[in-house]
């Protein structure tokens, strides 16, 4: 006999079984949701009318969600910039600047990937572009192959946490509870310090290798540095200035409140098309530029369709899961853990780390985040309450953002570790045959370790995420009285007395009736005792 308490566990087990078989995740979610939905109707856990919530939520929360329009815009922008050779110019000038020092090409790859991540937001575009440009150069100058493949793959995943990351947009859409929600602008603000810190961590690791293994990261010979002085800086600025303008179009308009994420994505997409048009001679002419645009449309349609189908499947699964009290089941798993919020974050992040061996970030976010968000808000809000001046609403929103940024740093590893590390697949696809697959996989391991270190830092340092967030206003303290004096030239009616209004906000009626004094003023007393 199947009981209601068994249903959430059985649904999760059924989903895992479907995915192990290799069935597409979007259709696995739909199949499991509908299968257990009909079982629940048969067992009397809810009625057939309950399933009406599925199409209502799909058309009301998925199809009509304007925030999700940012996904095709940012995807299209990244696809255009991937082939516009902007990264090639930037990497060439950075290589000339840093090439004289040990690890100079490594530093250049990390910095250019950071800038490229701020204008593309997609891992695939970044890894492919950087590998095609810099891998042959690093091989030519004798860089260690495992370091070379590792830094290219890891630097590509920086796009996951550097705004305008698609992961941050999707997390902002999914981090919602009945009492709080994250927004894209706040997610971007919370991600900046962790993103910069991760760049510093990668560069520190590169510097460490130059100290202990200088032969692994040799400098470029002086006679091969063709640009110097003003010519070098001119070429560097030629790549940096258009990039800075595009970054402002995308991020600056959101931060300043000028545009919504969807509007900024549209401006970024148009800016990328215009930038590619200006560089059409380097691309091979107008025909090649138009071919680039058509290919970008195809990539955007494919990725957007995949996201929408996964989201529809996740919605079907989520509605049925909530119908069988799955939310209470998840909360009970984490609420009574020894160690409180620390144990919660450790267990959740370990679970997601291992789940990322088999699922990509879209599937992880759509399946798990809506289930974990209410629990995260409940457990993490008290941790931030003091730093937000006791404002529970602001602390609850910040707790969701802190949780989301921690997950986004962790989810980076899904691109880096086997068997489904997509960054490694992208790298293998464009690398020459001389690069061994074993070098790609072994080279990724130290960088996965650095990403896990970064996850731990964000977990135990919420101030890194909340530093730029709105702290709100402190709530009114108990026992405070607010008086409003309303002067009037006309004296009040003798029959009605004065116009005095008293509000006592403690949930109880006044203890005794008070005859209003007959004065010439209209006084409103608000008593905020609790």
From TrEMBL:
Location (main, coarse): membrane
Pfam family, any one: DctM
Alphabetically ordered keywords of this record: Cell inner membrane, Cell membrane, Membrane, Transmembrane, Transmembrane helix, Transport
Stored InterPro entries: DctM, TRAP_DctM
Ranges of residues in domain TRAP C4-dicarboxylate transport system permease DctM subunit: 13-463
Places the protein is found: Cell inner membrane
GO molecular function, one term: transmembrane transporter activity
Membrane topology classification: Multi-pass membrane protein
Superkingdom field: Bacteria
Transmembrane segments: 7-27, 33-51, 58-81, 107-135, 147-171, 191-210, 236-258, 264-280, 301-321, 341-359, 366-388, 400-427, 439-460
Job description of the protein: Part of the tripartite ATP-independent periplasmic (TRAP) transport system.
Name under which the protein is recorded: TRAP transporter, DctM subunit
Organism: Thiothrix caldifontis
């Amino acid at each position: 006999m199947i009981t209601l308490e068994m249903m959430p566990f059985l649904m999760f087990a059924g989903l895992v079984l479907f995915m192990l078989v290799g069935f597409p995740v979007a259709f696995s979610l739909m199949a499991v949701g509908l299968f257990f939905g009909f079982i629940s109707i048969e067992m009397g856990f809810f009625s057939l009318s309950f399933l009406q919530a599925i199409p209502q939520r799909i058309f009301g929360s998925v199809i009509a969600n304007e925030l999700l329009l940012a996904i095709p815009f940012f995807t299209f922008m990244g696809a255009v910039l991937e082939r516009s050779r902007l990264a090639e110019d930037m990497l060439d000038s950075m290589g000339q600047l840093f090439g004289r020092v040990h690890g100079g090409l490594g530093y250049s790859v990390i910095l250019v990937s950071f800038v490229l991540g701020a204008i593309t937001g997609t891992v695939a575009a970044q890894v492919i572009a950087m590998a095609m440009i810099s891998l042959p150069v690093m091989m030519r100058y004798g860089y260690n192959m495992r370091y070379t493949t590792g830094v290219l793959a890891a630097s590509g995943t920086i796009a996951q946490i550097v705004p305008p990351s698609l992961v941050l947009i999707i997390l902002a859409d999914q981090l919602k509870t009945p009492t709080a929600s994250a927004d894209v602008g706040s997610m971007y603000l919370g991600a900046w310090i962790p993103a910069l810190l991760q760049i510093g961590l990668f560069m520190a690791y590169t510097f460490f290798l130059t100290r202990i293994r200088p032969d692994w990261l040799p400098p470029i010979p002086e006679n091969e540095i063709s640009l110097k002085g003003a010519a070098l800086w001119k070429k560097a600025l030629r790549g940096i200035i258009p990039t800075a303008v595009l970054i402002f179009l995308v991020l600056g308009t959101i931060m300043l409140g000028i545009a919504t994420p969807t509007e900024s994505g549209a401006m970024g997409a148009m800016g990328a098309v215009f930038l590619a048009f200006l560089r059409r001679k380097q691309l091979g002419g107008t025909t090649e530029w138009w071919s680039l645009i058509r290919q970008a449309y195809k990539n955007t349609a494919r990725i957007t369709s995949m996201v929408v189908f996964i989201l529809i499947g996740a919605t079907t699964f989520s509605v049925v899961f909530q119908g069988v009290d799955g939310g209470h089941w998840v909360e009970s798993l984490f609420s009574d853990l020894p160690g409180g919020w620390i144990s919660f974050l450790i267990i959740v992040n370990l679970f997601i780390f291992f789940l990322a061996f088999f699922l990509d970030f879209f599937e992880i976010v759509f399946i798990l985040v809506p289930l974990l968000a209410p629990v995260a808000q409940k457990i993490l809000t008290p941790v931030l309450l003091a730093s937000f001046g006791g404002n529970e609403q602001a602390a609850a929103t910040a707790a969701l953002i802190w949780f989301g940024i921690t997950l986004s740093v962790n989810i980076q590893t899904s691109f880096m570790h086997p068997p489904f590390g997509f960054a490694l697949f992208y790298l293998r696809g464009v690398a020459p045959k001389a690069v061994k697959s074993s070098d790609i996989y072994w080279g990724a391991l130290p960088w996965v370790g650095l990403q896990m270190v970064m996850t731990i830092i964000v977990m135990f340092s919420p101030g890194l995420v909340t530093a730029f967030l709105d702290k709100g206003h402190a709530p009114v303290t108990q026992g405070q009285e607010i008086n409003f004096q309303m002067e009037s030239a006309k004296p009040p009616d003798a029959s009605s007395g004065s116009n005095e209004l008293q509000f006592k906000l403690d949930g109880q009626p006044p203890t005794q009736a008070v005859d209003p004094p007959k004065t010439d003023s209209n006084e409103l007393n608000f008593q905020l005792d609790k």
